[in-house]
Write a structure and sequence with these properties.
By secondary structure, the protein is of the alpha/beta class. Helices cover 42% and strands 13% of the residues. The protein has a single domain, classed as Metal-dependent hydrolases (TIM Barrel, Alpha-Beta Barrel), CATH 3.20.20.140. It contains eleven helices and nine strands. Bound molecules: fe (iii) ion (FE). Fe (iii) ion (FE) binds next to loops.
């Protein structure tokens, strides 16, 4: 299994503090059945800006440590790129890194809003051959209140990544329910842990998938894991037609 969203670089963002913490996370990834992981530290975020150079340098350190410690895990470079107005030029200059050197870019929206220029940037990125993947839409307040906003972005060609912990209930019942609804509406395409540490933000990789299985979403599980592999292979995703998702039932909850 491949995890496409993780904070495993140490001392750079709100992920692990030191190399030891990183190594215990990487060992835990193996224990959870993860064979490959894409490192996606925060970049161009108001508080954290892990540069492409920092990613490349620390990836080399981790690569060596994985071998020294016999941890059978493949790591790939990437970034969780905050949506900023000059994102297209940052990608072109390779200052914003795609996932595992593919044409997929993990894009983080602000936590509460969807900026007006989002749609336009999604279209421009695609014109440049880059497919944006919206990180954990289920944790964006505007999408929680009006899930059709995500549908609009998906219809423009954006893809979306759901977080295991959201499905496992780690962020509460409302986000868990919304997550399941987004999966059922074919509005998410790929799956990640968004692991930050082993205590407050653990992998919950299996737990999220088990929840989907319990809810009889077996095809979705297959699709999500297959699309994760397709990111590494830089291939087109398996896509199911988005279903309309009602906004009404969310108004009273959030
Ligand atoms: Fe993240």
């Amino acid at each position: 299994m491949i995890d496409i969203h993780s904070h495993i670089l140490f001392g750079v963002d709100d992920g692990p503090g030191d190399l030891y913490e990183t190594l215990s996370m990487l060992q835990k990834a193996v224990d959870e059945g993860i064979t490959e992981i894409i490192s996606t530290s925060h970049s161009f975020h108001p508080q954290y800006n892990v540069t492409a150079k920092q990613v490349t340098e620390q990836m080399a350190v981790l690569q060596e440590q994985l071998q020294l410690n016999n941890i059978p895990l493949k790591i790939h470079p990437g970034q969780e790129v905050r949506l900023v107005e000059n994102i297209v030029s940052l990608v072109e200059a390779k200052e914003a890194l795609t996932l595992a050197n593919s044409n997929y870019l993990l894009l983080e929206l602000p936590s509460s809003t969807i900026p007006k220029y989002t749609k336009e940037l999604i279209i421009t990125l695609q014109a440049k051959g880059i497919t944006p993947i919206i990180a954990h839409p289920e944790r964006n307040k505007t999408i929680a209140e009006r899930p059709y906003k995500l549908e609009e972005l998906v219809r423009e060609g954006a893809r979306a990544q759901i977080t295991g912990g959201s499905l496992a209930g780690h962020f509460g019942k409302n986000i868990q329910k919304l997550s399941l609804d987004l999966v059922k509406a074919n509005l998410v395409h790929t799956y990640g842990s968004d692991v930050h540490n082993l205590t407050t933000r653990p992998f919950l990789f299996d737990e999220g998938l088990i929840y989907l299985e319990k809810k009889k979403q077996l095809d979705a599980v297959d699709m999500l894991l297959e699309n994760n592999a397709r990111i590494i292979e830089n291939k087109n995703f398996i896509l199911y037609e988005p279903q309309e998702i009602s906004s009404k039932k969310w108004w009273s909850i959030f």
